[in-house]
């Protein structure tokens, strides 16, 4: 019997899929390459220095 002689059957259509599953996601929401560090940015925080160096007219 040849595979082409068998009737066409869609086994994926018969498979049940649970969309309400509480299991961990297959893929993460964000990869490491999609972060600032992944793009070569430094991981140190610059906010404190910027707040200290703000001009006097900013109050």
Give the topology:
Layout: H1 11-14, H2 47-52
3D structure, described in words:
Residues 1-59 are annotated as: Disordered. Residues 48-59 have a biased composition (Basic and acidic residues). The structure is a single chain. The chain has 59 residues and is mostly helical. It has a domain at 31-59. It has two helices and no strands. The longest helix has 6 residues, at 47-52. It starts with 10 loop residues before the first helix and ends in a 7-residue tail after the last helix. The mean pLDDT is 76.
Mean pLDDT across the residues is 76
Separation of the first and last Cα atoms:
85 Å
The portion of residues assigned to helices is 10-25%
Task: Please give the count of helices.
Answer: 2
* Subunit arrangement of the protein: single chain
- Global morphology: rod-shaped
Largest sheet, described in full? none
State the total count of DSSP E strands: 0
The proportion of residues in beta strands is under 5%
Strand and helix order: HH
Low-confidence stretches: none
How would you summarize what this structure contains?
The protein is mainly α.
List keywords for this structure.
2 helices; mainly alpha; about 60 residues; single chain
């Amino acid at each position: 019997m040849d595979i082409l002689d068998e009737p066409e059957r869609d086994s994926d259509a018969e498979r049940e899929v649970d969309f309400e599953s509480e299991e961990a996601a297959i893929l993460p929401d964000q990869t490491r390459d999609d972060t600032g560090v992944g793009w070569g940015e430094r991981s140190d925080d610059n906010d404190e220095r910027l707040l200290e160096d703000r001009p006097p007219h900013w109050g």
